[in-house]
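Repro:
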Amino acid sequence: MSSKNYNIRTAGKANIPVLGLGTWQSTGQDCIDVVSQGLKMGYEHIDTAQAYGNEKEVGQGIKQSGVARDKFFLTTKIFPDDLKFQPEKLIAAAKRSLGDLDTDYVDLLLLHWPDDRVPLSETIPALCELQKQGLTRHIGVSNFNIANLTEAEKYADVPIVVNQVEFHPFIKQHTLQTFLNNHHILLEAYSPLARGDVFDNEIIKNIAENHGITPAQVSLAWILSDKDRVAIPKTSNPAHLQGNLDAIDIQLSADELEQIGNLARSDGRKIEHPDYTPEWDD
């Protein structure tokens, strides 16, 4: 995979393009088109999940783009409902994703949420086995807090390279970030624009105006200013693809980074899950 248009973040042996295209809530022909256009435009990182219900469309978008499979990094996630307590179900679910995506492998396979009904002592070894079988190049988790990660690492005999979590200027994640840094796990930010809240914040708007860029680009540039983070902004609007991509090259001053960092608050979450409330931070 070329790094022509991207900085790369490394964890374990995984080289992950620093900015990817998220596809949550992207469906039907719109999903096909945005994935295809993103890849043609130079995106080298696509993120999806079984729970999004769009793996087939993502696969069609990949095919429509004409971009070779080894030229981009592909991630999907398996939801706890697909695990059903049995590691064999996880392996079957992963193979189903590969079929829907029309690929022989993904670059990164994540457990989408921790779930007390699904013992990590069983699912993490099964996830590792998928890597050994070559169905995924690397493994990781999503929405795991420190306690979940500590337990998961006990059962992993290959590196856990990513924890994909909600992250944006308004959410406190310092404690989790420090833990991830110490364990050589990348923080992968979903909802990096805080579901649009960055567009209404005066500090972010002022910084954007000073640079002649958008609030979305400010938020992404702030996230990517840390070498231990990557981001996967989603968009169903192809017109926003280039703007997000351009955020990679934006440099904010130390004072601007500090101003944005000071916006974080303990109640800053935007994404809720009906069955799980993680302990994000202090």
